[in-house]
Structures are given as structure tokens and as C-alpha cells.
Amino acid sequence: MKSLFPLTSALALICTSYLAICNLATAQTTTPTDSSQPASPAVATAKSSPELQALLENIYLTWRQAMNSKDFNTWTATTAASRQMATRNRIISQRLSYPKALFSTPVQAPPLAQLVLLDVLEKGDTANAIYYGKVDFGLGADQTITDNFMVLKFVKELGLWKFDQLRIIKTGNDPDLQNKIRTSDFSFLKSDVFQPSGLAPLIAKSVNPPAYLAELWIAANGFDVRVNINQGNHKSHITNDDGRDLVIGGLVKGKNTVSLSITPVATQSTLPKRLEVAIYATPAANKPAKRIFHYAPDINKVPRTYSVTIPIH
Q1: CB–CB of 280/291 below 8 Å?
Q2: Can you give the pTM of this predicted structure?
Q3: For the domain bounded by 10-190, which CATH number is listed?
Q4: 276 near 262, Cβ under 8 Å?
């Protein structure tokens, strides 16, 4: 596998701060690498709350204007505390300046004018506003705009709604889904990918600028994998998919701990089962990255847990 370094791209930085993208066809079996969501008992099923539309759209549009005008105070006032910390940690983990780097991206938060609201779902202290249409990130000729779902996620803090994250869900070429959209049959919104969690995300601990920038690679088919690096500085979770992510907090000089929790799961893929985890690191974004950790066990003898200490001098 080839590393993505250098990691100085503000585009990659900002998108992964507030934007997640997935395909609807695989969303049921793929868990995003977002460690802020607590694992707690489920609460009541989400209810349709169309009366929240005007309030939530106003919050999002205020947040969007803050991004466009580089207004940090308004951005702070409208952004969930957990997302603020996640964004700050991601920027610091690339040794970039916070909050300056927050606004250093050509990506624009999409307008709502050309999108159709399908529903607003509310559960506990979370809510999702779900739209369909051509989601425009303002990239001009570099962007191919197609019809997809856009989910705006909100969190209630001390009785006030705050914007959390924007999620794009690609529809693919499913004719049955397209027909349901045309006939206003929105029963597919019961899928977990559209549902609010009901639980406010946890606020991560603050990290320091790292000695080494690092990137995590995971490939898992037939497995659910959770990765914990340096006692919770970074957590990733993926199921039946492959992906890569900036290691939050990077790596330190001295001892670095990596812990894996692995669970075999069913897969619909026709590809062979696979499990591979790697970490690449570099002392500077303008220098080549080296693979400093690689785990690819015998696929027939995969342990449920694996831990290792990686010394870096």
C-alpha cells in the first residue's frame, strides 16, 4: 500500500473534519472511523420532526456563512463541542495552525436551495435533516455534481441545537431506490445510515502537536476491526471495508501503543477474507513516510485481540 503523505492538504483536512462520505449499498456494513460516538444502550426509535426544519436549517446556514466568511466566533457558537475538539485535534495532528487552517480549503459547505428535504428525524439529543438532490461543494469544473443524499447532523447541548457533521450518502444505480424517491416512498430512511444515534458524541481529549505525522491503513473483509492508538488518542472502527485515516495525536518519540479488537463477521463480498492493518509515519510532511507497523495474520488464525508497543527513536 502507498502512503498519502505529505498530509498538508487543507482539502483532506477540512473534509474529514465535518464531512463524511459513504455508499448506500455498503453503509449497512461499514462503520465510519469516528471515535466520538459512545457505545451506549439504544434509545427510542427516531421520530419525524418536520417542525424542526426551519430552526435546524437556520443553524446550518449560519454555520455555512461562518465558514465562508472565516468567522471563528460564529463557527464556535454554532458547532457542537465534540466536533470543535475533533476538528482542532485533526488540525493539530498535522502540525497546522488552529483555527487558521480550518478555513484554508476550497471546499464550500453546500447550499440548500436546490435540495429537497425528505424528513427531519429526531432521537434524544440528536437530529438528522435529510436532503436529496445535487450537492454542490463549489469546486466548479473540478466537481461532478450528481444526485445524492445529504444528511445534516445536529446535537443538542444544554437545550440548544448545534451543527455537528455533514454526511453524503451516494445512491449508486439502484433502480428500486430511484423509483421510491420518485414516488415519495421514503421507507428507506429507516436504514441506520439515515437515523440519528440518540446520543451526543463524546468530547475527545485534547492532543499535542505530534513528533511524527502518521496515517492508519485498514483492510478488512469478513472482520469488524477497532483500533486504539496511544491509549485512546486515536480510535478507528471499520467493518467489511478498507480505509485510511490520519492518526489523531500522531506518534511520539519513545513508546507508542497499538491495540486491535477483531471480530469475525459475515460478508456479502465474493472476495477472499482479508485483514491487514498498517501505520505509516514521517517526521515532516515534506519527507517520505515509512511503514512502521504492519499486521497481516494468518486469515484462519486471527486472534480476537492484538496489542503491540512500537518504539520510535
Answers
A1: yes
A2: 0.86
A3: 3.10.450
A4: no
